[in-house]
Amino acid sequence: MYKIVSIPGDGIGPEVVAGAVSVLEQLSRKHGFEIVIEEHPFGGASWELHGEMLTQATLDACRNCDAVLLGAVGGPKWESLPHEHKPEAALLKIRKELQLFANLRPAKVYDALIDASSLKADVVRGTDFLVFRELTGGIYFGQPRGFDENRGWNTMVYERYEVERIARLAFETARKRKGKVVSIDKANVLEVSQLWRNVVHELHKEFADVELSDMYVDNAAMQIVRNPKQFDVIVTSNLFGDILSDIAGMITGSLGMLPSASIGTKYALYEPIHGSAPDIASQNKANPIATIASVAMMFEHSFKVPEIAREIEQAIESALASGCRTADIANTGDRVISTTEMTEAIVRHLGA
Ligand SMILES: NC(=O)c1ccc[n+]([C@@H]2O[C@H](COP(=O)([O-])OP(=O)(O)OC[C@H]3O[C@@H](n4cnc5c(N)ncnc54)[C@H](O)[C@@H]3O)[C@@H](O)[C@H]2O)c1
Ligand SMILES: CC(C)[C@H](C(=O)O)[C@@H](O)C(=O)O
Ligand SMILES: [Mg+2]
């Protein structure tokens, strides 16, 4: 039995999470295992119900399950709230409370979608890299922070142990892949990046079989677009990882394609990398694949059933190969289908 807490959130969150839940239900029917899904409010949706973006009940539920599935939070309705009350602050809080220090963001190109990328087919074909984004430290959490009428300030700080634990995961994972880690920083300008670089290199002594190189973040943004195939594993800080993974989204055709796993030593949460997309919310237009692929990551990392992860990825691949396209990945002339139609196609390809 798998107990999953779902926190759909705002905007397209509920639409894409509904797609992922259909996939979970189909897997349960097909394989005969029980899946219990408990839904809890989060973000703006929770604010409207309880006057709080993250209630103690939702947080307790997340600590009391095998895995959490999150849609997205945020939207224009809550933008003018003070920073500490915004839905985005609740997202940071849940990551911190559950100590989800590593955010794994794979950027893998599906063959059927090579023409959906804004980059040339030869550049994107065969791209397959994995970003380890540090998720509970750096400038997102550093103190002091604030702003007044004339000044705004944030602090980027990393402790040795924070760098070490994410770099260790990156090295361990690279060993099972192509054995190459690129650590991305801004050590030519930022002292905090110098610490990052020093710690990564010290740790590398334990992983001498893995090839390590450093890259400045501005160059990395360019290299990801110029030649994404050069990367295997990327390890980087919270802010740089946020930005670089959205860039990676465009290699795969759309932000709506990229899943993620946020993991710590005790808990795990799975979420697409995209946001609540207010521009297309409640229109049945969103691409559910990022969230469905996040369920594949759940089976891989939390439930340790990689065969089912592959089954989900295969069903996505087959749906795409048979021509299914939501608007974000459609080319001119393609028939565009809805969120629910894409979900149904993937469920069909999962088989019974
Ligand atoms: N993890 C999260 O919950 C998360 C992540 C990013 C942004 N946000 C929040 O979401 C809100 C909107 O932010 P934004 O517009 O900068 O980023 P966004 O990711 O929501 O949207 C960016 C663009 O990508 C498109 N897009 C995103 N996901 C898609 C999908 N699944 N299918 C098709 N198209 C998709 C949107 O329509 C939009 O044009 C903000 O409040 C922001 O803070 C939340
Ligand atoms: C909404 C925001 C807090 C979040 C982040 O910056 O981490 C988002 O952009 C993401 O990538 O998950
Ligand atoms: Mg982001």
From TrEMBL:
Keywords: Amino-acid biosynthesis, Branched-chain amino acid biosynthesis, Cytoplasm, Leucine biosynthesis, Magnesium, Manganese, Metal-binding, NAD, Oxidoreductase. Its EC number is 1.1.1.85. The keyword Hydrolase does not apply. Its cofactor is Mn(2+); Mg(2+). It catalyses: (2R,3S)-3-isopropylmalate + NAD(+) = 4-methyl-2-oxopentanoate + CO2 + NADH. One of its GO terms (cellular component) is cytosol. Binds 1 Mg(2+) or Mn(2+) ion per subunit. This is 3-isopropylmalate dehydrogenase. It comes from Pelodictyon phaeoclathratiforme (strain DSM 5477 / BU-1). The lineage of its organism: Bacteria, Pseudomonadati, Chlorobiota, Chlorobiia, Chlorobiales.
